Amino acid sequence: MPRAAFAALGTFVPDRVVTNEELTRRMETSDAWIQERTGIRERRWVREGTENSDLAFEATKRALDKAGWKASDIEAIIYASLSPDHMFPGDGCFLNAKLGIPGVPALDVRNQCSGFLYGLSVADAWIRAGVYRRVLLVGSEIHSTGLDVSTRGRDVAVIFGDGAGAALLEATDEPGRGVLSVHLHADGRYAKELWTDAPGSKYHPRVQVAHIESGAIYPHMEGQKVFKHAISKMPEVVRAALDRNGLTTKDLKVLVPHQANLRIAQMVQRSLELEDAQVFNNIQKYGNTTAGSIPIALAEAVEERGVKRGDLVGLCAFGAGFTWGSALVRW
Ligand code: COA
User: 100 — alpha (psi -120 to 50), left (phi > 0) or beta?
Assistant: First the structure.
């Protein structure tokens, strides 16, 4: 049975750097508070008029160049995002048009910070089943247009950034290579601990002046609850993945955790007793880019940690829903 292997990764972040210092001019916060609580030094924000699918398109072009593929080599698109260009259709279709590949199927994934792992699970299943042999999996986010950048929204606004990562997955028959397993979970009892209420189809019209005035159009987060669940669920699901494959933490070349908060990643590292060299973080530069976070960090980890054929790479995520998951990949 073929498995899904990473043929190439590509990333794209907007060129506009927003430092913590810039945020202090918009809300009551400080560089020291943000760095101490989250590890974030700066993030990227798009310029007005940029579309989520533009970021995904640029990331995809870079991945195609690296893999030496043409857009027409892509047999299916999976697009993970919580911040699509429009209510519908999903950004998979807009990306399909930008890539100039009419007819290629496009699936949209709505699983927030776990979106890339949910997408990876589908891509891997398609490839194992022989449905497609070459799949584009993108995670892309524009948070900056949806944040309350006043003091009221500071707990959320300082965390999130814009960016996209694209992975080209191909069928491999090489023994041992590729995605070993993906493990997914959700617990909807916590759906409103991290969510955006409006616009929503339960409202008529879907967004109202009252929503704008009350801040219901902005993400709301019970930060401490998210933190508490993230630091227990991510190590648990990484251990489950290792156990399933008869591996241990010592076998990991690198673990790339979803970049939610540097303190969360450090606690996951401690809980799994991993060395510093075994965990990759880049939240300092980009903040939390949600569905974009794992592919952006994975691309940098592969370069900076010299990941080579045969190395074991772990991925894990936790986010809104709550949803969480892990994957193990033999590079
Ligand atoms: N700047 C300065 N002060 C801030 C602030 C900011 N940006 N955001 C919140 N505060 C204040 C709060 O108002 C509160 O003030 P008070 O004590 O006067 O009421 C104080 O800081 C402590 O707030 P608290 O929410 O208890 O802080 P915390 O230690 O839990 O840190 C988070 C807040 C958001 C950084 C933290 O909870 C967190 O990272 N949670 C996980 C978030 C996450 O990963 N989300 C993405 C999931 S995918």
Answer: left
Find, among 217, 286, 221, 261, the residue nearest to 45 by Cα. Answer: 286
Please state whether the predicted TM-score (pTM) of the whole model is above 0.70.
Answer: yes
> How large is the average pLDDT for residues 187-207?
98
Determine the distance separating the centroid of ligand 1 and the alpha carbon of 23, expressed in angstroms.
15
- The predicted-structure confidence for 277-314, as pLDDT tens digits, reads as follows 999 999 999 999 999 999 999 999 999 999 999 999 99
The one catalytic residue in 113, 143, 183, 211 is: 113
Residue 232 has a pLDDT of: 98
19 Cα: distance to centroid of ligand 1 (angstroms):
18
Question: Which of the following is catalytic: 258, 261, 281, 316?
Answer: 258
How large is the angle between the packed helices 293-304 and 115-129, nearest 10 degrees?
A: 80
Q: Which residues line ligand 1 (CB under 6 A)?
A: 29, 33-34, 37-38, 113, 154-155, 158-159, 221, 223-224, 226-227, 230, 260-261, 264, 288, 319
CATH class of the region 3-172: alpha beta
Q: Would you list the domain boundaries of the chain?
A: 3-172, 178-194+221-330
113 catalytic per annotation: yes
- Inter-helix orientation angle 262-272/31-38, to 10°: 30
288 tagged catalytic = yes
**H-helix segments, 100-188:** 115-129, 154-157
281 annotated active-site: no
Show the tokens assigned to 317.
């995520």
Fold annotation for 178-194+221-330 = Peroxisomal Thiolase; Chain A, domain 1 (3.40.47)
